[in-house]
Sequence to fold (432 residues):
Amino acid sequence: MPNLKDLKNRIASVKSTRKITKAMQMVAAAKLRRAQDAAEAARPYAEKMEAVMGGLAKSVGNSEGAPRLLAGTGKSDVHLLVVMTAERGLCGGFNSTIVRKARSHAETLRAQGKTVKILTVGKKGREQLKRDHADKFVGHVDLSDVKRLGYADAARIATDVLGRFDAGEFDVATIFFNRFQSVISQVPTATQIIPAQFDAVEETDDSGSVYDYEPSEEAVLEDLLPRGVATQIFTALLENAASEQGARMSAMDNATRNAGDMIERLTIEYNRSRQAVITNELIEIISGAEAL
Amino acid sequence: MAAKLQFDLVSPERRLASVAVEGVQIPGTDGDMTAMADHAPMITTLRPGVLRLDGAEGGAETAYFVTGGFADVAGPTVTVLAEQALPVSEVTAEVIDGFIADARAAHEKALSAGDGATTNADATAKLVADMEAARGLILG
Fold:
């Protein structure tokens, strides 16, 4: 049986751990609110962008000489996986779920005989993928000193990706991130960004065709597609940020609860040992008195 | 009183403005244009320049500096999607000089990229020129 002093120290240490996890949970809750607001504020732009591009893609997409960002390179031999994870740990399975999804995707592609390249965003994913995919890394984007995610950050990543595409480094690009559903549920998602894909636009036919385009449909589309890529990356980053805080919040909530349980158990044990010590002392005194 | 149209200015990060106006002066890539209510539906790309609102209600900002993007004009609504947009009153010499410096850097890069990218060099040169014109418009 551990002695009383040890138990007391243990309890004190678990108590301070609980304080820390509690504080982290509250910080995550505050950050989550902000991240959600940011994601909300970015929605009108992304939706409008998608609607306009969807309409355009439908009228231009099948014609000859459609932009390569839309039509693709005609091959799908080299795949670029953009894996977006957090810069920090202590957020439950957040990073692992993304990495697992990316890893299985990479496996599938390799089984089909394709070449896989990986661009990591965020330190944690890079660390996890380093073990068996380090040879496929083509770049890394560090966001650890970014306090508040801005469109400029997404634009930077997009420029990087588009530059590689123009240089013919890959044929298909897919981004991996966690889509925020609720505090307790984040869905790891893979979205293909190059060549661009649109959900079948189910709008009435006249919505797209009656528009006049200036300078021309092709020129507008040419201009829009890179922006569309940046917008998709921005949306993914924001979703990811909200998911990260949500995951951290629930992970820290669990940790706080576990620490509470542990303190309870340790306290019971502590009281039991204390009682045992007292009983022992009493027996010693009584048997001493009887011996006289 | 002219008919009103709904004007929205959205940037990737937030909605900057949503007001009823009589007309919007848009700095389109092929030239300036003014959209009023019941304008034929059209989509145009923007060059860096100043977006002006005519007859905006209340004390809303009436001029914005945009660095690019596109405008969707559809009858009763005009939506401008701008990558970066600032109310003109907040644009200072430093801000716009920063944009000009960025555009110049992109231009130099395009020039040094070699002969394969001449169209890119032209595009970035135009960007610099547009930025400088906008600077003249805003700061006088």
About this structure: The helical segments of chain B are 93-112, 118-139. The mean pLDDT of chain B is 82. The longest helix of chain B spans residues 118-139.
